[in-house]
Automatic annotation (TrEMBL):
Claim: DNA repair is one of the keywords in the record: no
Bilayer-spanning residue ranges: 7-28, 40-58, 74-92, 112-131, 152-170
Protein localization: Membrane
Lineage, broadest ranks: Bacteria, Pseudomonadati, Pseudomonadota, Alphaproteobacteria, Rhodobacterales
Family the UniProt entry places it in: Belongs to the cation diffusion facilitator (CDF) transporter (TC 2.A.4) family.
Protein name, as recorded: Cation diffusion facilitator family transporter
Organism encoding this protein: Pseudosulfitobacter koreensis
Stretches assigned to the Cation efflux protein transmembrane domain: 10-201
Length: 295
């Protein structure tokens, strides 16, 4: 399934879940279920944000954006993280009112059943988004999926609170559980913001990916002496690599170009690299310290 279709699907799922959770609150009057519904309003907004970001990121490079529009997805993920934090603060506000005036719940069993249906839908869709987002290297889809995971955790916590409140008659448990879940949501929102900001700051690829890049260069650079000053960064689905390739002094321009082509093709095939820049240098530029020795 394409990222665009998944993003559109998230919008429809978001509206469906929001409707079910709002119904659960209307049936019970539970402040925890109201908080759960408030958190779900963010799902709809972030789904729209993810769709916009994915469409922008998919645009080809142009004169104004010669490196493409890949970072648009990180902006969307930051927005989602901020909105998750906002939802948590709204939940804490509602929980405070519940502490001040705890009240018995109406039709708790029926309300929980409706809320459970919404939770199952969210859980399944979160798995779809995260799985496909990682496969397609889409930060926006992964962030949207993680957001839904926090929504599932919210619903589970809320259900536990409502059940305990009904069994014990301690109605103050309703806002207590809502507050605890809000704290967890705050932490999840912060993690999404932090990871997305790392992408906006041109963070290097993971150590595992970097190791694979070095292996490919070493395997495909026959005829060169060493590669040094290897640098990487990632932006959404795009990986950028540049390094210096040292060749013997007698190497012709044609031969050096053939080596570079071989390395580029291998990197693009193995790691789906988007942009590669190789600076060819004569042998007196050799550094050796920290370099990939090829001979």
């Amino acid at each position: 399934m394409t990222t665009i279709k998944l993003a559109i699907g998230s919008i429809f799922i978001g509206f469906a879940v929001l409707g079910l959770k709002s119904l659960a609150y209307w049936m019970t009057g539970s402040v925890a279920l109201l908080s759960d519904a408030l958190e779900s309003t963010v799902n709809v907004a972030t789904a729209f944000a993810a769709l916009i970001a994915i469409r922008v990121a998919a645009k080809p490079a142009d004169e104004g954006h010669p490196w493409g529009h890949h970072k648009a997805e990180f902006f969307s993920a930051v927005l989602e993280g901020v909105m998750i934090i906002l939802a948590a603060l709204l939940i804490l506000r509602e929980a405070y009112d519940g502490f001040m005036t705890p009240a018995a719940l109406d039709a708790p069993i029926e309300g929980l059943a409706v809320n459970l249906g919404a939770t199952l839908i969210n859980g399944l869709w979160a798995w779809v988004l995260i799985t496909n987002g990682r496969r397609q290297k889409s930060p926006a889809l992964v962030a949207d999926g993680r957001h839904l995971v926090t929504d599932v955790l919210t619903s589970v916590g809320v259900a536990v609170g409502v059940v305990l409140a009904v069994v014990t008659g301690w109605w103050i448990l309703d806002p207590i559980l809502a507050s605890l879940v809000a704290v967890n949501i705050l932490w999840s929102g912060w993690k999404i913001v932090r990871e997305s900001l790392s992408g906006l700051m041109d963070e290097a690829v993971s150590d595992a990916t970097l190791g694979r890049i070095r292996e490919v260069i070493a395997a495909e650079a026959n005829g060169a002496m060493e590669a040094h000053d290897l640098r990487t960064r990632h932006a959404g689905t795009a990986i950028f690599i540049d390094f210096h390739l040292v060749v013997p002094g007698e190497t012709t321009v044609f031969e050096a170009h053939e080596i570079c082509d071989r390395i580029e093709n291998a990197l693009k095939k193995t790691l789906d690299v988007t942009h590669i820049t190789i600076h060819v240098e004569p042998e007196h530029k050799s550094k050796e310290d920290g370099a990939i020795i090829l001979e």
